[in-house]
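Annex B. Sample input.
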Amino acid sequence: MTQSVNLFPTSLAAVWQEITGSNKPNDTLLYDRVLFTLVITLLLIGFVIVASASMPEGQRLTGNPFHFIQRHAFYLMGCVAILVIGLQIPMEKWQKHSSLLLLATFVALVLVMFVGKTVNGSTRWLSFGPINIQVSELAKLGFFSYLAAYIVRRHAEVVEHAKGFYKPLGVFLILAGMILSQPDLGTVIVMFVATVGMLFLAGAKLRDFFVLILGGVALIVGLIIVSPYRMKRVTSFLDPWKDPFGDGYQLTQSLMAFGRGDWLGQGLGNSIQKLEYLPEAHTDFIFAIWAEEMGLVGVTILLLLQLCLALRALYIGSKALTAGQAYGGYLALGIGIWISFQTAVNTGAASGMLPTKGLTLPLISYGGSSLWVMMLAMVALLRIDHERRLSSVQATQRGNQ
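Annex B, continued. Sample output.
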């Protein structure tokens, strides 16, 4: 008599335990079905809302309302290729070639300075025919991979000596200087927060963190003060209605979208703000269009999905560290911090809680670079968890022999 297997949790408590990993994992299943389901769900939501938000812009720019939809579909096919190919690469190779990945990032950032494509006053892209690669997106994953490998190699030095703590920060400062020249302060802030988080979780001393955090905050404030356009963003964030047709235009239009969304939204496709009122409706401010069309209920669901994704990454990192897979563990923790903070910045900027930073909403916003790099990060998480489960099964089999 065959025993039936229940593949779905039967209560909300069981769902939460499955997401956070607080229940006993089924290590005989050699992939993380919760993470995989979250990623696919967010990609599908992203495609739907990009299709809704981008049609007016596509019509205006190209005469084809499906222009951005077709390109986003191409980016999603690229995500499938990244998934299929990336899952075949062992984390040992990631660790072995982490320095080469960082070097390639440096080279690409140098190329951006000389042959980069400029859009809206920012030079951040390398063009390869119809495809534009935003190198600062690659810099995030490249640096986190390098930092995870560095922590593994120099863990004792990071924990016991200040020089071990500050060495990778020298590399970060070089990267930050190159990214700031584009200019792109948002990416630098995300990288800084994730770097601090990874070093903290590695066990570095608190006194080093106080110095680092104070220095980082002072540097960010200084960069805002000396830059007129950054100062305008901060002042318009503090009181966007003071100049609703000037510096505060984008934020006031975004807030109108949130106001129109109410509890249940205007319905998918029924946004008014996307009709040439809200700039960057399908990229940086896609969350505002989602809020207008799906309301508070839709906003809550999307934020919960992003929260679950970040928690799952942190859980995978914790389990990998417990299993002795230090590189994969620290990389997963860095990815989890990256996802959570970038989501907070994007949604906070769209809702008027934070100054505008020009960061995408992970796995949701239109854009090939951000989508592909984030997908590669998700593939790394799946591979890290797969290797941990595989080693657990092999150890159990050896113990039974």
